[in-house]
Design brief:
195 residues, 82% helix, 10 helices, mainly alpha
Length: 195
């Protein structure tokens, strides 16, 4: 099923309506969809490097709006909507463990790491932020920074290096972002618990 969703999402890049699809995928990825918007963003930006930054802005805005929708789902419709979505993706137990151990500092850190590296998945964090009542203005600001940084960085890489960077991005960007996320988490823990 996942491969089918991935292939379908990738096929949208060739359509005239690709920019609208990018906005839609980025929106639903942040609240309920499994496939990241990068799957659509990368081929679009490679085929039209002159529009890479425009696509990055579209993806950022839609992703932040989707994150806000996820926050509202978590805050106002946890039992009716969020819980079934999390169970469907097999993320409910992970979510419950996070919910029980999370405060505002951890949520902020997870927003940054999920925005940059999908660790944990962004939809889990947006719903969790709503469930625990993370302040919406801080949520929006951190989502803009994290998601914007990711898409704008990808736009810069694609504009500067073009097609050769695509393999690198697809194979190693997650690992690099994961290492950066681990460093951020370690830094947070050191500052929070040692100082």
């Amino acid at each position: 099923m996942l491969r089918g969703l991935y292939d379908w999402t990738l096929s949208l890049a060739a359509r005239k309506s690709a920019e609208w699809w990018l906005a839609f995928i980025a929106f639903v990825e942040s609240s309920v969809f499994l496939v990241p918007a990068d799957v659509l963003y990368l081929p679009m930006a490679l085929s039209r490097p002159d529009r890479a930054y425009r696509y990055a802005v579209v993806a950022t805005i839609a992703s932040v709006l989707g994150g806000i929708a996820g926050w509202f789902i978590g805050h106002y419709a946890y039992e009716a909507v969020a819980k079934p979505v999390l169970e469907f993706y097999g993320k409910f137990d992970e979510f419950e463990a996070l919910r029980l151990s999370s405060g505002d500092g951890i949520i902020l850190l997870m927003l940054v790491t999920s925005g940059l590296a999908h660790l944990p998945p962004i939809k889990v964090v947006t719903i969790l932020a709503g469930v625990i009542g993370f302040p919406l203005p801080w949520f929006i600001l951190s989502a803009i920074v994290a998601r914007g940084a990711r898409f704008l960085f990808l736009a810069w890489l694609l504009r500067k290096y073009g097609e050769p960077i695509r393999d690198f991005i697809e194979k190693r960007l997650g690992m690099i972002a994961g290492v950066a996320a681990a460093v951020l988490i370690l830094l947070y823990l050191v500052v929070h618990y040692m100082l």
